[in-house]
Amino acid sequence: MHLLPSERTAKAVYAIRHVEKYVQERRARGLDVLKLNIGDPIKYDFQTPVHLRKVVQDALKTKNYYAPSAGEDEAREAIAAEYSVLPKQVFLGTGVSAVLDDALNVLLNPQDILLIPRPYYPLYPVICQKLGLQFSVYDTVAEEGWTPVLSDPPAGAKAILVNNPNNPTGAVYSKKVLRSIVEYAATHKLVILADEIYDEIVFDEPCTRFHDVVKDEVPLITFNGLSKNFLAPGWRLGWMVLKNIDVKGPFAEAIQNVLESGLSAPTAPQFAVKPALTGSKDHIHDMIKKLRERRDFVHKRLNEISGFSCTKPEGAFYAFPKLPTKDDVGFVRDLCKETGVLCVHGSGFGMPGHMRLVFLAQKPILTEALDRIEAFTKIES
Ligand code: PLP
């Protein structure tokens, strides 16, 4: 039977996974695929730290009940200590993907506008589309290290979402840039939503958190989780931390209510939060060491390919080069069909003429991928 989806969801496409459709045909022909589309470290040569796995394995023996909707006390307390706030200001959920969805759901009415960066992580518009919310983009500019260029927001703007370190550009904003965003938000009475899921994965300078530059000027909600810094994306655990928002007020109450309707986040992984935040972080040093080398290599090779230009990623694990064509969708599709290298088209991030490449893979794979991209580009031009 032919069934139509709701208008809200009909066009809500998450490009990063959607491109996998190009792979099937190649695999059916028995040809290889080099997948550089998804930012999942576990699919490459990274592993969830042993001390965290052990805690979760133990928790799975006895703790298979629903957790409290806002999260286990132990996890809330550990996150609260990390941000010097009260546990009541912390809410856990099924990844940043889910807690961001909850926060936007509770924060915005249909007439309100959410400001999101361009290029954007595709989840942001997808959540807005699904929930029937409006968004408007502010540009970040390659020539200025992909930092935001902020002009007066449209009437109805209620919140500004900032992703630092940034997916897909790899930009890491200075304290000065963060301060200017805080002043902008204060002037225009905007709530700041800070997606800082990559805040420990930085190659040159440490990442400053909004939490440390916001005093009492604006409401701030910070998002983070276990997926990237702690190499456990499959545990689906993320959190939000409220600052300058009354925890006894209606907003926090509505967050609690929405979380109650989802029952709880996965219980066992919540017991990894305290050891993650307070225990050994050796895995982060190892990860950064490997990634820095891969970042340097990919950055150099991309800029050697005729017609490509790429700024140097300072954090996360993505490169976002400008392509020698405006038709990024066709380029990425044909690149995969012809060479098996799977990247994501820039228009999936709101920025045509670019593509995103994940540099989590080992050097021989990246070498092969970049050689294939170069050969393909020569034939195309
Ligand atoms: N935010 C950004 C910027 C991301 O890149 C990702 C995943 O790639 C997420 C959020 C999703 O995080 P989680 O796994 O906690 O849902």
Description:
Helices cover 39% and strands 15% of the residues. The protein has 381 residues and is an alpha/beta fold. The strands form three sheets. It has an eight-stranded mixed sheet with strand order 2-9-8-7-6-3-4-5, with helices on both faces. The mean pLDDT is 95. The chain binds pyridoxal-5'-phosphate. Pyridoxal-5'-phosphate (PLP) is lined by residues 39, 95-97, 121, 123, 163, 167, 195, 197, 225, 227, 233, 238. The site of pyridoxal-5'-phosphate has 14 residues, from α6.
Chart the SSEs and their pairings.
Blueprint: H1 7-10, H2 15-18, H3 21-28, E1 34-35, H4 50-62, H5 73-83, E2 90-93, H6 95-107, E3 113-118, H7 123-131, E4 134-141, E5 147-149, E6 157-163, H8 175-187, E7 191-195, H9 210-213, E8 220-225, E9 238-243, H10 250-261, H11 273-278, H12 282-304, E10 318-319, H13 328-339, E11 341-342, E12 344-345, E13 355-358, H14 363-380
Parallel strand pairs: 1-11, 3-4, 3-6, 6-7, 7-8
Antiparallel strand pairs: 2-9, 4-5, 8-9, 10-13, 12-13
The structure holds pyridoxal-5'-phosphate.
